[in-house]
TrEMBL record:
Gene3D superfamilies: Alkaline Phosphatase, subunit A. InterPro entries: Alkaline_phosphatase_core_sf (IPR017850), Phosphodiest/P_Trfase (IPR002591). One of its GO terms (molecular function) is hydrolase activity. The keyword Signal applies. This is Putative AlkP superfamily pyrophosphatase or phosphodiesterase. The keyword Transmembrane does not apply. PANTHER family: BIS(5'-ADENOSYL)-TRIPHOSPHATASE, ECTONUCLEOTIDE PYROPHOSPHATASE/PHOSPHODIESTERASE. Residues 1-24 form the signal peptide.
Length: 521
């Protein structure tokens, strides 16, 4: 039994282990390095995506002088705390929106966990050890090595790497899971895993000119930070960036994903600054690669963003955790890792503070499922689609709300909508045919994106602040932090930009790709 679990445990380290700790760096430790600091003809843009970076703990860490690198970037840049994330507010969906400039209705990455109607199976991109073990290590590994970028990410959208290649600009991706580009790469599976599984030793994938993904592929052959989480850690990522900088081979655009803060916030809650303090030491290492920190600003435009907020989860498990299997126990629910049988009726895929509930049997009514869910006062609202019209109900409000794209009502993003019913359900305010968002920023487009992210009949369920959904073996974060919902407490992220005063048309993560590409126009 232990031998059979080894590949599960080894692969699971990819996403659920703790980031390795690096040595402390400070301004007195700076060393000169072979970094070009004179002006360049083409801008160099470095995008740092920091998982679960949030405004309040960021400001607190800076105020307490525990984040000198972030303080340096903030002092020399522009700042906003209100960039709207994608939905669900889960990393893979957010990453796909960032890199394609599209919500899931176009990118087709529905969430961290979802149900593939055609394959009749639950797809997980790594939602905790127990879920991975039940789904199967082979499917999980296939997702990381191949499925994300080469199958699931829609061919009808282009990534920033593909668009840059079109205008003859090169790019790099470091430890980002969504990275599709025009260059072929070979990912090497560590021998530890191949020896105890039936996985192949190599996977072919398509990425940017330069691709780093932990132990699977790296630019710096001497980068030895590959033991902890198989290199999908902050020490590895920062070493790769330093290597590109010090060798003067960094391309026009580089995206680097910093993940360690997310684990800390999940455990300790959204008010902690421990993760920020730790990641800042890594950023100090990057700045110390330059003769002086100010030299980092001369040739490079730095963009530092979060991906989603996390909101606190009530400490009492009984109160905090919405067990959808219990709520919907009258239905026959598909088991994790099992193929759908004829008598299975529904599928539950919990993405922390949001969930998809799928109807897979004609004997089941989506409206009946919605009615059952409505009785749980911890659920904010439930949505489903009938033809083009999206219906939303809530246990806190009378009636229902319906909407679809197009129509005479316009929002702040100049999107047109046809709406009717009780707008309070999604906290919308109407003034002279103008839609104003409250608790759910860009709520109509983001919910539309989730409702049209995949085939089949399903419901989208969103939790109130303080609560989290659990399915058969999904992780839980009672007493800590979680994300996933469309609420502003999960959705608004900070951004720091240096080297330009060029404004972003709309402060949404889906608008960043277009804005970044304008650096070379």
């Amino acid at each position: 039994m232990l031998i059979r679990l080894l590949p599960c445990i080894a692969i699971s380290i990819l996403l659920i282990g703790c980031a390795s700790s690096g040595h402390n760096s400070n301004e007195q430790d700076k060393k000169s390095a072979a970094i070009q600091t004179e002006s360049q003809s083409s801008p160099k843009v470095i995008l740092l995506v920091i998982d679960s970076l949030m405004d309040e703990p960021l400001k607190k860490a800076i105020q307490e002088k525990k984040a000198p690198a972030l303080a340096f970037f903030l002092e020399h840049g522009q700042y906003s705390k209100n960039v709207v994330s994608s939905y669900p507010t889960m990393s893979v969906t957010i990453d796909s929106s960032l890199i394609t400039g599209a919500y899931p209705d176009k990118s087709k990455i529905p969430g961290l966990v979802w149900f593939n109607k055609d394959e009749k199976q639950i797809i997980t991109y790594g939602n905790g050890l127990f879920e991975i073990m039940k789904i199967g290590v082979s499917q999980f590994a296939e997702s990381i090595m191949h499925q994300y970028n080469n199958v699931d990410l829609s061919p009808n959208v282009s990534t920033i790497h593909e668009d840059l290649n079109t205008i003859k600009k090169e790019s790099a991706s470091i430890n980002a899971f969504i990275y599709r580009g025009n260059y072929r790469h070979t990912l090497k599976v560590p021998k530890l895993i191949t020896k105890v599984s039936n996985l192949p030793s190599e996977y072919e994938t398509a990425g940017p000119k330069m691709l780093s993904l932990g132990a699977f592929i790296q630019q710096d052959k001497k980068n030895n930070h590959i033991v902890n989480r198989l290199g999908l850690n902050d020490a590895f990522a920062v070493q790769e960036l330093k290597y590109l900088l010090e060798k003067n081979i960094i391309p026009e655009f580089t995206i680097l994903y910093i993940s360690g803060n997310d684990f800390t916030v999940h455990r300790k809650g959204p008010n902690t600054i421990k993760g920020i303090e730790k990641l800042d030491k890594y950023l100090q290492e990057v700045l110390n690669s330059f003769p002086e920190w100010e030299d980092a600003l001369k040739n490079y435009n730095w963009i530092i963003i979060g991906d989603s907020k996390q909101s606190p989860v009530i400490e009492s498990k009984k109160e905090a955790l919405i067990d959808l299997q219990e709520t919907l126990s009258e239905y026959r629910i598909l088991k994790l890792g099992k193929p759908a049988a004829k008598d299975d009726e529904i599928v539950i895929t919990a993405n922390e503070r949001m969930a998809y509930v799928y109807k897979i049997n004609e004997s089941v009514s989506v409206k009946d499922i919605a009615g059952r869910l409505k009785t749980d006062q911890r659920i904010a609202w439930i949505a489903w689609k009938e033809k083009e019209l999206i219906h939303v109900i809530s246990g806190d409000h009378e009636g229902s709300f319906e909407f679809k794209p197009g129509g005479t009502y316009r929002d702040v993003y100049n999107q047109g909508w046809s709406i009717k019913g009780n707008t309070s359900i999604l906290d919308l305010t109407l003034k002279n045919k103008n839609i104003h968002y409250g608790d759910y920023p860009d709520g109509l487009a983001r919910l539309y994106g989730a409702m049209n992210s995949q085939e089949g009949e399903f419901l989208v369920v969103d939790a109130k602040p303080g609560y989290e959904f659990i399915g058969e073996s999904s992780p839980e974060h009672s007493g800590g932090g979680a994300h996933g919902s469309m609420h502003k407490d999960d959705s608004l992220i900070p951004i720091i930009v240096t080297g330009t005063d060029k404004s972003i048309e709309q402060l949404r993560i889906v608008d960043l790709k277009k804005w970044i590409l304008e650096f070379w126009n």
